[in-house]
């Protein structure tokens, strides 16, 4: 039964990300693909995945995320220019002790906004808080896809491994809305809940050989060990979700073999 379940997963992945397959088959020409396993920040419970294909400066972006505050918009960006990392899910980086890892406090890891992943119109940093043009998580999930032009500095960040995908907006107090006494470090007219990072992942070069579903299904662990190890390291951050669950199952299997 596990195998019967795994096969459609692979098929769906291939169908959802055809450019990824093409890129993996011809790694040194045309488009380059990147993936991010999104891990929760601010104990949001949010998880997801991001896929980006860059063909020159033309970016096709796909984001799937779940566990978000339902019925509210979620600002989402490429962040660039720092370490290409994310804050941890605990409050270790809450330097001012306000109960949130704010964008300011997270910036040392993931940097400034490089692109605003809006649904329509401008995608520059100027639209960073244009919440009327960001996805609304009607049932707590976001399924985003858009193709647009990025700037040279964003392209360079992808190549340097310092591009990070961040989705914002966390219902820290569980009230069902963005509210509370702590105001945003980015816009003092907004609650901190509206702008604090909810989920984050470094955009890393996608490697089809490292896809957890394929590795687990074929059991070809010994031939692809190094690549799979790298993928699993990222997968742990995502904790769950289809890809994460596959990675964890695979990791268990590897641990049993070791
Ligand atoms: Cu952001």
Automatic annotation (TrEMBL):
Signal peptide interval: 1-27
Alphabetically ordered keywords of this record: Membrane, Signal, Transmembrane, Transmembrane helix
Regions that span the bilayer: 230-250
Name recorded for this polypeptide: CHRD domain-containing protein
Organism in which the protein naturally occurs: Modestobacter marinus
């Amino acid at each position: 039964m596990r195998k019967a379940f795994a096969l459609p997963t692979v098929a769906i992945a291939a169908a959802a990300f055809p450019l990824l397959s093409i890129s993996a088959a011809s790694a040194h020409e045309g488009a380059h693909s990147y993936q991010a396993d999104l891990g929760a920040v601010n104990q949001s419970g949010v998880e997801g995945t991001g896929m980006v294909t860059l063909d020159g400066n033309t970016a096709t972006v796909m984001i799937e995320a779940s566990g978000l505050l339902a019925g509210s918009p979620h600002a989402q960006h490429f962040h660039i220019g720092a370490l290409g990392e994310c804050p941890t899910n605990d409050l270790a980086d809450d330097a001012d002790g306000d109960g949130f890892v704010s964008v300011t406090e997270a910036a040392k890891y993931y940097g400034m906004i490089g692109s605003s992943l809006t649904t329509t119109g401008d995608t520059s940093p100027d639209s960073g808080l244009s919440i009327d043009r960001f996805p609304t998580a009607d049932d707590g999930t976001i399924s985003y896809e858009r193709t647009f032009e990025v700037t040279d500095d964003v392209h360079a960040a992808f190549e340097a491994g310092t591009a990070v995908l961040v989705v914002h907006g966390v219902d820290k107090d569980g009230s069902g809305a963005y509210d509370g006494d702590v105001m945003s470090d980015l816009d003092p007219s907004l609650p901190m809940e509206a702008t604090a990072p909810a989920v984050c992942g470094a955009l890393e070069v996608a490697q089809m050989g490292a896809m957890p579903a394929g590795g687990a299904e074929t059991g070809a662990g010994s031939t692809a060990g190094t690549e799979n190890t790298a993928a699993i390291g990222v997968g742990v951050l995502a904790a769950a979700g289809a890809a994460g669950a596959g990675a964890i199952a695979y990791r268990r299997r590897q641990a049993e073999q070791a």
